[in-house]
């Protein structure tokens, strides 16, 4: 906490120096924005300097500044040692907005996010400077003038420093026979690439939330947002460039933002696209691959030659089954507020989610199907985004999505097989549904993964939901 106070003091001192001890610009232009340093002084300066800064901000007030002031205040919330600054900023917000929300933090979040987004042009710089009191590296993500395609007031600190949740980098693997620490009912995330299969135990990956790995000759960035319950394996190469990713320590709508070390751009981990930084609007997009959430016993039975992560990660963690995020996974409560919610399902109801390009509009359309529905409808056909989809669910509840083409599948036909409406048997593999009588006839696997409903809906409220 002393370090936090010292950094805060340095920010305030720099702001006061730039402003001439709080005097501010001699004469502001009518349509000009107030100097961004005034906002820093209002939050971190001495009481007299803070009051003068707030007066100058008020004289040039625009509604779009409300989210910025709230962003400053929420890092000062109790038990911050700068409680008076927190109270002063909230009182100022009330005066400027007419809202009477006091210290109702959730209420301010809801109100701010419901307003049009018209921020100060230097908001990104302000955010980087303010968050630098937590970790100086946050300034790398928010240089002056950096572009953003998401609301900066919806980006919040996730409680850790940059890479404070350390990614696994090419982790040690074991053969299935040597993984004696795993029980058959332990949850794993199974990925298969070019004939190679690997299991990523939830009990390990939950502590690291990212694994940089190579499987079947493909460089992968496997992202696990524990808050949203989602694992997505992305190819690390986009447009011919190999990106090396890390964990930013920041969240957007409760979903982790990762960053690439090369440009320090922030990336949406649901979408695989840069949302803040130099790569915004570059067209960069990571290619997602299929993953299955299953048990170690079921995965090993289907893939006896699989490899699996070792407990020798180079980090000291309690890798026991269910130890990571036990309290969070055990309730329907959220750890971080989101700007939009939907009560058709419980917050953490598990849904199988996917997005596909609409042939009519080229938009990527989102689809979510509840895991409970799929457990009761183990072969489910659905027309979506110009595709005939079939979701095949194993007896143990593992979901795999395929492009059915012109085939209609009707029911399971034993372990690892399904039949179509012509009575033909197809084998269920990680790459495709393969016609048992002719291995050349295949229906390709499509990228899909599980998520908590609240996290998916917060990102994609136009989702088609099947339940």
Would you give an account of this structure?
The protein has 467 residues and is α+β, with helices and mostly antiparallel strands. The protein has 3 domains: 2-146, no CATH class; 168-327, no CATH class; 350-466, Rieske Iron-sulfur Protein (3-layer Sandwich). Helix content is 24%, strand content 28%. A 5-stranded antiparallel β-sheet has the order 1-11-12-13-14, with no helix packed on it. A 5-stranded mixed β-sheet has the order 3-16-5-4-15. The protein starts with a helix and ends with a strand. Residues 1-9 and 11-28 have low confidence and may be disordered.
Mean pLDDT metric:
93
Low-pLDDT residue spans: 1-9, 11-28
Number of helices: 12
Content of β-strand: 25-35%
In total, how many beta strands? Answer: 28
Structural class: alpha+beta
Instruction: Give the termini separation.
Output: 47 Å
Neighbour order of strands in the largest sheet? 1-11-12-13-14
Any key phrases for this structure?
disordered N terminus; 28% strand; 3 domains; Rieske Iron-sulfur Protein; 12 helices; 467 residues; alpha+beta
List the topology elements:
Elements: H1 2-18, H2 36-44, H3 47-59, H4 66-74, H5 83-97, H6 105-114, H7 123-131, E1 155-157, E2 168-169, E3 173-175, E4 187-193, E5 196-201, H8 202-205, E6 210-215, E7 218-225, E8 230-235, E9 237-238, E10 241-242, E11 245-252, E12 255-260, E13 266-268, E14 273-276, E15 292-295, H9 296-302, E16 307-309, H10 326-329, E17 350-357, E18 364-370, H11 371-376, E19 379-384, E20 387-393, E21 399-403, E22 409-412, E23 417-420, E24 425-428, E25 432-435, E26 442-444, E27 449-452, H12 453-459, E28 464-466
Parallel strand pairs: 2-6, 5-16, 18-28
Antiparallel strand pairs: 1-11, 3-16, 4-5, 4-15, 6-7, 7-8, 9-10, 11-12, 12-13, 13-14, 17-18, 17-27, 19-20, 20-21, 22-23, 23-24, 24-25, 25-26
Helix pairs in contact: 1-2, 2-3, 2-7, 4-5, 4-6
């Amino acid at each position: 906490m002393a370090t936090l106070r010292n950094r805060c003091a340095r920010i305030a001192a720099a702001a006061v120096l730039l402003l001439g001890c709080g005097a501010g610009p001699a004469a502001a232009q009518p349509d000009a924005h107030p100097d961004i340093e005034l906002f820093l002084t209002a939050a971190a300066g001495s009481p007299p300097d803070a009051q003068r800064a707030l007066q100058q901000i008020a004289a040039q007030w625009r509604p779009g500044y409300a989210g910025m002031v709230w962003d400053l205040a929420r890092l000062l919330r109790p038990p911050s040692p700068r409680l008076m600054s927190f109270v002063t900023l909230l009182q100022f917000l009330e005066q400027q907005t007419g809202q009477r929300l006091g210290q109702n933090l959730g209420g301010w979040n809801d109100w701010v996010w419901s307003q049009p987004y018209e921020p100060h042009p230097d908001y990104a710089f302000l955010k980087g400077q303010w968050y630098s009191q937590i970790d100086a590296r946050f300034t790398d993500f928010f240089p002056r003038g950096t572009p953003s395609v998401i609301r900066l007031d919806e980006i919040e600190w996730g409680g850790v420093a940059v890479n404070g949740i350390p990614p696994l980098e090419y982790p040690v693997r074991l053969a299935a026979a040597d993984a004696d620490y795993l029980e058959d009912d332990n949850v794993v995330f199974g990925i298969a690439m070019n004939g190679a299969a690997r299991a990523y135990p939830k009990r390990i990956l939950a502590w690291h939330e990212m694994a940089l790995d190579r499987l079947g000759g493909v460089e992968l960035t496997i992202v696990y947002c524990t808050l949203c319950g989602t694992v997505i394996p992305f190819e690390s190469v986009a447009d011919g460039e190999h990106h090396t990713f890390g964990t930013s320590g920041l969240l957007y709508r409760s979903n982790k933002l990762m960053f690439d070390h090369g440009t320090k751009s922030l990336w949406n981990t649901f979408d695989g696209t840069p949302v803040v930084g130099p790569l915004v609007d570059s067209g960069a997009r990571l290619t997602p691959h299929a993953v299955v959430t299953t048990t170690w016993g079921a995965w090993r039975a289907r893939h006896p030659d699989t490899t699996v992560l070792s407990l020798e990660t180079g980090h000291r963690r309690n890798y026991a089954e269910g130890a990571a995020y036990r309290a969070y996974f055990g309730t329907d409560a959220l750890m971080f507020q989101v700007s939009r919610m939907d009560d058709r399902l419980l917050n953490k109801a598990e849904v199988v989610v996917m997005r596909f390009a609409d042939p009519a509009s080229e938009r990527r359309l989102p689809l979510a199907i509840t895991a409970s529905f799929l457990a009761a409808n183990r072969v489910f056909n659905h027309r979506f985004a110009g595709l005939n989809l079939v979701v095949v669910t194993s007896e143990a509840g593992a979901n795999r999505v395929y492009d059915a083409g012109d085939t209609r599948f009707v029911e399971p036909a034993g372990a690892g097989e399904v039949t179509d409406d012509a009575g033909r048997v197809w084998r269920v593999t990680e790459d495709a549904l393969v016609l048992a009588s002719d291995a050349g006839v295949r229906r390709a696997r499509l990228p899909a993964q599980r998520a908590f409903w609240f996290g998916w809906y917060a990102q994609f409220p136009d989702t088609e939901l099947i339940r």
